């Protein structure tokens, strides 16, 4: 069974100091990932079962899972669809630090993440989150 993963990421970041005591930092990252495996196929025959009933799907190892059965019975026919993963994210981060003194600093952080899940089968993984934080830092 072949399992394929593609992952791509690109980041742009900048650090800027407009005045001696003030620092700005910003970044944006885009990621794209895709993964999946091929359809599961079991081809090994069980000779004893073939002799009893050559047309029975049970004559193959795991044969009862590889044919279409009436509703409610498991099948591997679409199992590869459940392995398909495809998602992208955009992450934005901004921060500012202001040094009041050499030991005392104020800081501000802003983060925004957006998730797009294009191949979901259990739940929808789309969404976004925003985080804003303020802080005071004192170095001893």
Account of the 3D structure:
The chain has 2 helices and 5 strands. It has helices spanning 47-52, 79-83; strands at residues 3-19, 22-37, 85-99, 104-117, 127-138. Strand 1 (3-19) and strand 2 (22-37) form a beta hairpin. Strands 1-2-3-4-5 form a 5-stranded antiparallel β-sheet. The chain is rod-shaped, with a radius of gyration of 27 Å. The N and C termini lie far apart (58 Å). Mean pLDDT is 79; it is low at 62-67. The chain is mainly beta and 140 residues long. The chain folds into 2 domains: 3-37 and 88-138, no CATH class; 40-77, no CATH class.
Mind describing the biggest β-sheet? 5 strands, antiparallel
Q: Summarize the amount of helix as a percent range.
A: under 10%
- How many structural domains are formed by the residues? 2
Distance between the ends? 58 Å
Write the layout of secondary structure elements.
Blueprint: E1 3-19, E2 22-37, H1 47-52, H2 79-83, E3 85-99, E4 104-117, E5 127-138
Antiparallel strand pairs: 1-2, 2-3, 3-4, 4-5
List keywords for this structure.
140 residues, mainly beta, 2 domains, 8% helix
Compact summary:
This protein is mainly β. Helices cover 8% and strands 53% of the residues. The chain has a 5-stranded antiparallel sheet with strand order 1-2-3-4-5.
